[in-house]
Amino acid sequence: DGGITQSPKYLFRKEGQNVTLSCEQNLNHDAMYWYRQDPGQGLRLIYYSQIVNDFQKGDIAEGYSVSREKKESFPLTVTSAQKNPTAFYLCASSIDSGGAGRGQYFGPGTRLTVT
Amino acid sequence: DQQVKQNSPSLSVQEGRISILNCDYTNSMFDYFLWYKKYPAEGPTFLISISSIKDKNEDGRFTVFLNKSAKHLSLHIVPSQPGDSAVYFCAASVSGSNYKLTFGKGTLLTVNP
User: E strands within chain A?
Assistant: First the structure.
């Protein structure tokens, strides 16, 4: 079954600790994305990567870091510099379909709670 | 500046009736639009899309209408079912690229039995 996996589903951390969220896809998509969702805020783009070993900041990249060493994997690190890290984090992937496609495919999400 | 707006945070309809979810956009460069459905604690799933060369696209109970002059699109669900209760996100892109989808804030649809 092709898809995107995110682990864990729920994650709890103490303030001041860095935490890494996992995202793996076996869809053979070149592009991968990280979003965060807060109540009433919709989906906000943190980082995206169009190809291995390359990534770009999204709209709210401060306090986050990513790596893209493999096509299948795009881990997100929430650093202690992120002021409000508690949120629902979504990973996605896509091809650049040129308008005929289904957009981005999303994983099931990770709920991060920092206390 | 919010380029994709879903002005209704929530909508409640009776089972069997029509649900109409609205979306407005400000960027005239957007030429491909998508609707996603999201259940709580899950990732969004693709529902239906429309290119700017069309004004209507249908898929079963779901129809999306695009009014380019008004920069407005709407999603119609007929008939609505309780399983349709979810948050619906409108998204837009330029040149149909998947790289930079701009999402609205979502509308919570509740379909009452």
Answer: 4-7, 10-13, 19-25, 31-38, 42-51, 54-57, 64-66, 76-78, 87-94, 105-106, 110-114
